[in-house]
Amino acid sequence: MTCFELFCMIYYALDAFYDQNKNDIVGQFLSDANPFLFEDSGSADPAVFEEFCSFVNEPIEPGESYSVANMYIEQLCNQDITNAFKSISKSEWDDGLNSYLSSPHKK
User: What single-letter DSSP state applies at residue 62?
Assistant: First the structure.
């Protein structure tokens, strides 16, 4: 999978948490990270996606994506975002990933 696909998966996972918890810090991160604001592959704040890409090496094996995403989240050093991501189990991640990768999406 591509760097952008993994970035979108992280966005979806955190967005699901935000929908249920309305955490302001997670909400701000989602606003900056929004990968759907523009037509190109990036984020609302381009620095967020650029930083992500400098952390992640392509290609990413789908089976390793949860671990890579978790490492990225940890290096953000933000407890609210870390806790939000950890609320998503690997099985929930895998189910979402399979659905996302099998559907038409931006790459």
Answer: G
What tens digit of pLDDT does each residue of 69-96 get?
Answer: 999 999 999 999 999 999 999 999 999 9
Q: 82: buried, middle or exposed (CB in 10 Å: 19+, 13-18, 0-12)?
A: middle
Please list, in sequence order, all residues whose beta carbon lies within 8 angstroms of the beta carbon of residue 97, skipping any fewer than 6 positions away: 9, 62, 65, 66
User: Which residue, chain included where needed, has tokens 């309305």?
Assistant: 22
What pTM was estimated for this model as a whole?
0.94
Helices (H), 2-78: 3-21, 24-33, 46-55, 65-75
Give the dihedral sign, CA 2/56/90/62.
Answer: positive
Can you give the C-alpha Rg of the chain in angstroms?
13
Task: Assign 107 a pLDDT band (cuts: 50, 70, 90).
Answer: confident
